[in-house]
Amino acid sequence: MERHPITDHIVQLSQEGQLMPACLTAFTGEDGLLLVDTGMAAQADALKAAVAELGFAAPTYIVNTHAHPGNVGGNGAFGDVPVIIAHHGVRQQMGEDSHVLLDLPDDAMPDLEIEADMTLRFNGERVQIIAIPGSHTAHDLIVHFPDSGVACLGDIYPGRFFTTAVYGGKMENLPVMLREIIELLPEDTKLLYGHQAGVGSLDDLREMLAIWDEMIPQVKAGIAEGKERQELAELLPEKWADVNIPGGGFIAWVFCLQRDLQDTGEPQPARASILRPMFAAQKTENGDGIVAALKTAINDGLAIVPAHETDLIQFSYWLQRAQERPEDALALFKYGIELFPDAWNTHDSLAEAYAVVGEKDLAIAHYKKSLELNPDNANATTELAKLGVE
Ligand SMILES: [Zn+2]
């Protein structure tokens, strides 16, 4: 982990991520260590080493800005020693969806869930923990150290790119919340972001607000005219092309806006987790065994909905890449075709899984099928070219 000193008592720690770094903050002093966020589970050992380097065995407090796996992944690294503080609702979110793959121990769960703001006295300073719900996720916090003149914004403003609203967050609340933060924080506050190393300022927030203020009405108008997402993505003017980075792209931002506008406010039926039975099975079973466990769950009443396609693909890639079990992943990708025969992405993923295990002809066949279902699938075109198919 890289260390970036911010003040005498505050150090930013950053971890390399797949697309962007994950940034943590350490506040040290005579009472001990307070950590804001804990990074990715896969880097928990590096986090422990960084904490030891700061002269501590464990943090006294951990504050999670929100429930994303890259923010809570290292929560369990210090056993039950730290008191973990989060917004209420984070504990529940940490038991759902992709968190299942993290297999976090009980010690990783928040000990203290707050509904409103709170102030801690620690290391002779005030630590203001401020609830910013319903923005990047349904349950976000920012952490302000007024005596040090530093604030950690988590992913309310994660860095200079298009952030999204997930886990019950709302796009239209993001600018509202940014304006509140600008009102709240003293002008010279040093800002620390969730996915960009270094120090920022309130002017960064003002710039992003200006971008959003210009783009939100345009995207909304485009949606009303019935424009496709790709056409909407082209609304971004050239002057902001550098904000449109991979992993924080404008198209994902457009998707979130579209989703929020289509939200009728009707409660959505909860979708049962397919990750849970698959995750439990993979501990002892191979690919066929995992498929069998999923089939059993379906026979027992688990209703498959289109949104499960993403879960299945995510789990299979986790198996293929993180767990290095390509044959087991292939069995699942194949079953994915049975569950979602007309889904282009499932064919694209199966094609890749075949390519990984050296089944070139089958890889080609499924990339072609994916392109048939979605002629805009640029990945399939690229991969087919690599496989020697024009
Ligand atoms: Zn996040």
Topology diagram in text:
Blueprint: E1 2-5, E2 10-15, E3 22-29, E4 32-36, H1 44-53, E5 61-63, H2 69-72, E6 83-87, H3 90-93, H4 99-102, E7 112-114, E8 118-122, E9 125-131, E10 141-145, E11 150-152, H5 173-184, E12 190-193, E13 196-200, H6 202-224, H7 229-233, H8 250-262, H9 275-282, H10 287-299, H11 308-322, H12 326-339, H13 344-356, H14 360-373, H15 378-386
Parallel strand pairs: 4-5, 5-6, 6-7, 11-12
Antiparallel strand pairs: 1-2, 2-3, 3-4, 8-9, 9-10, 10-11, 12-13
Residues 66, 68, 136, 155 line the site of zinc ion.
Task: Describe this entry's structure for a reader.
With 390 residues, the protein is an alpha/beta fold. It folds into 3 domains: 2-208, Metallo-beta-lactamase, Chain A (4-Layer Sandwich); 220-262, no CATH class; 275-386, Serine Threonine Protein Phosphatase 5, Tetratricopeptide repeat. It has helices at residues 44-53, 69-72, 90-93, 99-102, 173-184, 202-224, 229-233, 250-262, 275-282, 287-299, 308-322, 326-339, 344-356, 360-373, 378-386, and strands at residues 2-5, 10-15, 22-29, 32-36, 61-63, 83-87, 112-114, 118-122, 125-131, 141-145, 150-152, 190-193, 196-200. Strands 1-2-3-4-5-6-7 form a 7-stranded mixed beta sheet, with no helix packed on it. α9 packs antiparallel against α10 and α11 (308-322) runs antiparallel to α12. The radius of gyration is 22 Å and the shape is globular. The two termini are 43 Å apart. Bound molecules: zinc ion.
